[in-house]
Amino acid sequence: MNYQDEVLRIFDKSGAHSAWGIKHCTRVYHLAKEISQHLQLDDEILYVASMLHDTGRYPAYALSNIDHALRSKGVASNLLQRMAFSPHKIPVVLEAVESHMYYSEPGRSDEAVYIRDSDILDNLGNIGLMRLFSLIGHDELIKTPEDALERARTFAEALPNKVYTKTGRRIAVKRREEMLRFLSGVKRQSTEFAKVL
User: Fold this and answer.
1) How far apart are CA 51 and CA 137, in angstroms?
2) Ramachandran sector of residue 125 (left: φ over 0; alpha: ψ -120 to 50; beta: rest)
3) I need a labelling partner for 127 at 20 to 30 A (CA). Which of 56, 116, 178, 181 fits?
4) Using an 8 Å Cβ cutoff, are 72 and 53 in contact?
5) What class, spelled out in words, does domain 1-112 have in CATH?
């Protein structure tokens, strides 16, 4: 079995919520490839780091009171060694996994930088909105639709400034506008409804 098949098997037993599951990870991989197409990045590193970056969130691997990025790094390290992934590439994958969150500094490798930017971009725009609303009741910070709306406002304002690459920033601006249009529409329609009462 090759490393790609082994990585995909992880999702089968992970219990991952769809907001962090295989579709999210696949989007992160493809976004990283898209915004880094002017560079010669290692595709194996991009793929594996994209697919493993959130494993520490999944019920099969999560540990309470441990940041999921650090937990994901530990899980990824064990998995990559077990699947005999290229030993000289493992440190680059682990750096990308550990530094993928918007509140982290970008990693030193180009692969880490583009994985982080891609993960941030997947939290913006229409996909970002869908992910937030799918998490209502499944995330301690998003218990209600109002929480999801507030998180969307926060993401729209803060996340574009966290994107490091020039191409990523252009995409972030467009996705921010998508979110702001949605939020403006919700506010307008809620106000109109309130006036009817």
Assistant:
1) 25
2) left
3) 56
4) yes
5) mainly alpha
